[in-house]
Design a protein that fits this description.
The chain is α/β, with parallel strands linked by helices. It has two domains: about 110 residues, no CATH class; about 260 residues, no CATH class. An eleven-stranded mixed sheet has the order 3-2-4-11-10-9-8-7-1-5-6, with helices on both faces. The protein is globular. The termini are far apart. InterPro entries: UCP012608.
Length: about 375
């Protein structure tokens, strides 16, 4: 009996630590409601015991899944979150009372958003590659990042001199209802690389996801995507709605349901031989066990090697998800609590990006356009 008690305590403690870390490293400064709510959950031993005892380890224990599930079910304070102990008590009581429904949503849904904002940080790399392109997204969700040509892009260069206006450049679909604004900067005193003059030419696109969504045809999928947008982030909510509206006007990309290791080879084989195959992903691999990430990397290298130089790998993941992707400049540019993603081309880190494409900070190593024409190596 002692062993079982210790295991339960350790499991509940792990859940509590995860919520406190989420509050401090991910929600702080981005969503006051989520930061406060997850901090209170992390201090609530009884509630953490419920989570650890009724949800399996792994994906189902993501804080973002619980938060979105309650919002999806129209739980209390769905838009603004608890603001004091009494409000947290109401949220807690409602969640426990509706726990069977909340758990059902958590177990059948994925916690990954599908934010088109990632296209703003992907576009500069896509535009450098030999055209035309065949895009293959891992963790494609609703496929909103597979049609970068539908959006308008505005890049604002951060000024290093007080009182001067930042330089700005634009490209993409000028009449698009979706404008993706991205702040650009560079490490040290180096120049900020130029943004693309036009969007890339895309002749094929496909994707894979364990739980692909179709917010155009399924209102429930759209409701879930909206629940994943954090409280107080009205701009992202508006952008999501506009992107889904645009998706209604274009053919839906072929996103298959399945495991990435199983489905990737067949999908890659569909890419036209004359196109440059680009396998890419944004914040998609963090929840995979380390050994499966290594198997995925080996698979991508193998698939691209067979393209005879007409293939590239663009990753945009949290620091440490692909631990071999690092450099001195990369380490120096990051803060321990930084929520930014590492943008890498063929396993070389080129930039740090905002979690939703709002910023692009080029590193001092490998930012020249010349690096883009080199194939991935194993």
């Amino acid at each position: 009996m002692l062993v079982n008690v210790v295991n339960v305590v350790n499991s509940a403690q792990t859940v509590a630590d995860r919520y406190r870390e989420f509050s401090w490293q991910q929600a702080r400064g981005r969503s006051d409601a989520h930061a406060e709510l997850t901090a209170r959950i992390g201090q609530d031993a009884e509630f953490c015991d419920l989570l650890s005892g009724s949800l399996p380890a792994g994906n189902a224990q993501q804080p973002s899944l619980l938060l979105a599930a309650v919002r999806y079910l129209d739980g209390p304070h769905a838009e603004h979150g608890p603001r004091d102990e009494t409000a947290y008590g109401r949220w807690r009581e409602w969640t426990i009372r509706h726990w069977d429904e909340v758990r059902t949503v958590i177990m059948r849904r994925a916690g990954r958003t599908n934010d088109p904002g990632h296209c703003a940080t992907l576009l500069p790399l896509l535009a450098r590659l030999p055209q035309p392109l065949a895009l293959l997204e891992v963790g494609a969700s609703a496929g909103l990042c597979l049609r970068p040509e539908l959006y308008h892009y505005r890049y604002e260069e951060a000024s290093s001199r007080p009182g001067t206006r930042p330089r700005a450049a634009a490209c993409g679909a000028s009449g698009s209802p979706v404008t993706l604004t991205c702040r650009t900067s560079a490490a040290g005193a180096g120049p900020v690389p130029e943004v693309p003059a036009r969007v890339p030419e895309i002749v094929w696109r496909g994707g894979v996801d364990l739980d692909p969504l179709d917010p155009v045809a399924d209102p429930d999928d759209l409701r879930w995507l909206r629940a994943l947008v954090w409280p107080g982030d009205g701009k992202r909510a508006e952008r999501l709605s506009a992107a889904v509206g645009l998706a209604r006007t274009a053919p839906r990309p072929g996103v298959v349901r399945g495991d990435l290791l199983d489905e990737l080879p067949a999908l890659a084989a569909e890419a036209p031989p004359g196109a440059t195959l680009v396998i890419f992903h944004s914040a998609a691999l963090a929840l995979l066990p380390a050994d499966r990430r290594e198997r995925f990397a080996a698979l991508v290298r193998s698939l691209l090697a067979g393209r005879e130089g007409r293939g590239h790998w663009i990753s945009q993941e949290q620091h440490g998800v692909l631990p071999w992707i690092t450099s001195p400049a990369h380490r120096a540019a990051r803060h321990p609590d930084d929520a930014s993603l590492t943008l890498a081309l063929d396993e070389r880190p080129l930039a740090l990006t905002g979690p939703y494409g709002e910023s692009l900070h080029w590193l001092t190593e490998g930012t020249s356009a010349g690096t883009a024409g080199q194939p991935a190596t194993g």
